[in-house]
Design brief:
Length: 364
């Protein structure tokens, strides 16, 4: 099929690396691996940070212009399916539903979400647009059970299917050697949940400074100075600050081995956890939000109680003290990603879901 792909939050070609951009690219790869031709339908970013009516009106006007452009496509370039990734209250899809209706083609979403509590905070109209799109979709692909339950509660007449988060694991080689004292984390340095995770990580490591460990921190962002101030309580010789790194550099760093440590406050799921596990690193994180969807507690890592820095510190210490458990979890982590969360596995699962929900309209 010719598939029009649209990511209103961040285009797959956006210059700033992020989990959203990576997931968009991987969805395109999964569709292409299933035999489809995928084009980015629009580069329009539909994001507004606040429920500002003027800002939304400007985006609506630009979206209407995009609809006119797309409807004028010659027949041989018209899509046979529309696929929207990550529409939520700050980024409603204002293009795909209209184009899909005009062309009478299936509309599909992935990682759509609805937050009822936002209705009273000025986002009611955006939420209505999200709900209408979810209701129109032939199927809404949910990466986590948490997202599926939220959408189903808000739009009970929608169609839903689970597509667990995935990555392309082949670019992550196994660690060349055991690195028992090496801890690694990869995360942007920005306000909100990321900053809270860094704060918790610094506090936890301060509690086990008697252990033999070093921490490699990969990431940068507007809160870099605040993050560095948080870790000033720790001996500087234990910390290696690598800043922002390319995907190739991250893969290289993970291949050096160790334990992946990241609390994951409010984490939707966290592709970085899958990348670390693909490289054979066990994970220590919190059992919060979408993290349990990507880390097998007790098998590929240890998930601790939400907000409990003492428990988090204890889990890191346990893996530092027990090399056999650390190595076993690392092997299980790699098997988990390669066998269950790989691009090829996701492509097969996605193909089955689309066949089930699109029926004769699906290009098979």
């Amino acid at each position: 099929m010719r598939i029009a792909f649209y990511a209103p939050l961040k285009s797959p070609s956006h210059p700033v690396p992020s989990g959203d951009r990576l997931m968009a690219r991987q969805l395109i790869a999964a569709l292409e691996l299933a035999g489809h031709h995928v084009d980015t339908a629009s580069e329009l970013r539909g994001f507004t940070a606040t429920p500002d009516l003027q800002a939304r009106a400007e985006i609506t006007q630009r979206a209407e212009a995009e609809i006119v452009r797309l409807l004028a496509l010659p027949s041989e370039q018209r899509p046979e399916m529309w696929f929207t990734y990550h529409t939520y209250y700050k980024t409603p899809d204002q293009i795909g539903p209209a184009v899909s209706r005009a062309f009478a083609i299936p509309y599909v979403t992935a990682e759509a979400s609805y937050s009822t509590r936002r209705d009273g905070l000025g986002w009611r109209e955006n939420q209505r647009l999200v709900a209408d799109a979810v209701r129109q979709a032939a199927v809404n692909l949910c990466f986590t059970e948490r997202d599926r339950r939220g959408l189903e509660a808000a739009v009970p007449d929608g169609n839903y299917a689970r597509l667990p988060p995935f990555i392309e694991p082949s670019r992550f080689p196994s660690p060349a050697a055991d690195a028992p004292a090496r801890l690694v984390t990869v995360a942007m340095m920005r306000a909100g949940d990321k900053l809270e995770s860094y704060r918790m990580l610094a506090s936890a490591l301060d509690q086990i400074r008697d252990k033999d460990w070093t921490l490699t921190i990969i990431g940068d962002g507007p809160k870099r100075a605040e993050v560095e101030a948080m870790f000033a309580i720790l001996p500087p010789q234990r910390l290696t600050w690598l800043g922002e790194a390319s995907s190739e550099r991250i893969a290289t760093e993970l291949s050096l081995g160790g334990i992946y440590v990241w609390p994951g406050c409010g984490e939707a799921y966290g592709l970085a956890y899958l990348e670390a596990q693909a490289a054979g690193l066990p994970v220590v994180a919190q059992a919060t939000a979408g993290v349990p969807e990507v880390v097998m507690d007790g098998k590929s890592g240890i998930l601790t109680r939400e907000g409990d820095a003492i428990a988090f510190a204890g889990a890191v210490a346990r893996l530092l003290d027990h090399p056999d458990q650390r190595r076993a979890m690392g092997l299980a982590a790699k098997d988990f990603v390669f066998n269950e969360r790989s691009l090829s596995a996701a492509s097969r699962r996605l193909d089955i879901i689309l066949q089930q929900h699109l029926g004769e309209r699906y290009g098979r």
